[in-house]
Amino acid sequence: MMIFDILVVGAGAAGLMAAGYAAELGAKVCLLEKMDRPGKKLSITGKGRCNVTNNCSRDIFMDSVPGNGKFLYGAFSGFSCQDTIAFFESHGLPLKTERGNRVFPISDKAQDVVDTLVRYNEEGNVTFLKGRAVSLLQEDNTVRGVRLENGKELFAGSVILACGGASYPGTGSNGDGYRLAQEGGHSIRPLKPSLVPLVAAGEDCRDMMGLSLRNIGLSVWDNAKKKEIYRDFGELLFTHFGLSGPVILSASSHMRQMEPGRYRVDIDLKPALRPEQLDARLQRDFSQNLNRDFLNSLSALLPRKLIPVAVKRSGIPGNKKCNSITREERQRFGALLKAFSVDITGFRPIEEAIVTSGGVNVREVSPHTMESKLLPGLFFAGEMLDVDAYTGGFNLQIAFSTGRAAAAGAVACLSK
Question: Is 319 exposed, middle or buried (0-12, 13-18, 19+ CB in 10 A)?
């Protein structure tokens, strides 16, 4: 029989932080992971660079958590973005702050983040076990451990579920934790993809597949409310299904009521130029190509894959000579470049999302200790909770903050 003070299920960002901190507080800890190595999803985040947190204030952090941000006040107060930075640097991982206050390891290697957290656990003599938890062990309305897929039982004074969401199932986040939470009596808010590519109407995006645009402006419009709901600047990618890239992933988390036709993305292809400046640029380009076809006069202005689509949308015949283009046509084309619209029909599947929106209902969880209000001794951390944020390191900060809070709560629970 294996008995521990605390059993943490899931060796992702939240689980590694929770197990390590519980051990630091003096508990005998077991970290259970069904994958062949810990931190598998963490090792591929941020395109392999790992945006560990955001070097921002509490107010900015809270504004960046549209999904149940108020629930995090306690956990974040206990372990802030600056605490995360101090933690990693004090454990031998130098960090740097980049655009948008995004924090990365100086090495630009996500695996270094994983290795630092693993060492933290090893220094605390945390027991690593490989296995899949399939059910909770309960006695007298209190959690006592978990039963594994192979039939073995692990006993503990407290259990922290840090199993991740339902995105990137190949890394172990396949929704197992939600089933365990339901077994403990918890309700699960509907799971939706967040920080996910967007599916677009029509064939224009497919025709530009593979085209990456840097330094574009983007705005998201809610057609039902007839107002702009988000504005950003950055990089996007046209794909066979629609739109992807960092700026699109960020935009997706603002589309909380997704349905076909609800949202429109307007891309400013020339954000550095005001409309009158762009018109002057077009006049100059056309004057230098007076006897050339419109279609063949845009190579200095637009990427090759974008030109046929832009010409088609403009309504100006591609074979029309530049010296014949009217002022009205030119200005209409300029307006098109400042607001290149893409109608959105939906999200890509949740398996392709960076994070999962939805999860364990936070009304059923103590915001200070992460303990279940329904089943004493059961705690939650990370993406399992119905809390999600924008891109920029905020979601990993949620994992670290809730992991620390759950560990502290679980250790305190042992003395009751």
Answer: exposed
Q: Are 216 and 340 in contact (CB under 8 A)?
A: no
**Residue ranges of domains in the chain, CATH in brackets:** 2-192+355-414 (3.50.50.60), 197-347 (1.10.8)
Q: Cα(first)–Cα(last) distance of the chain, in Å?
A: 23
Tell me the pTM: 0.87
SS3 at position 18: helix
268-281 pLDDT, tens digit per residue, is: 999 999 999 999 99
Q: How far is CA 45 from CA 19, 55, 60, 256, in A?
A: 21, 18, 22, 23
Chain mean position to CA 96? 20
Return d(Cα 4, Cα 28) in angstroms, integer.
Answer: 6
CA-to-CA distance for 117 and 110, rounded, in angstroms? 11
Are the C-beta atoms of residues 213 and 305 closer than 8 Å to each other?
no
pLDDT tens by residue, 17-50: 999 999 999 999 999 999 999 999 999 888 899 9
| Statement: residue 169 has pLDDT above 80 | no
Q: Are 278 and 331 in contact (CB under 8 A)?
A: no
216 - beta bridge partners?
A: 234
Q: How far is CA 115 from CA 13, 49, 250, in A?
A: 11, 13, 28
Structure tokens at 138: 């309960």
Q: What is the largest CA-CA distance in the chain?
A: 87
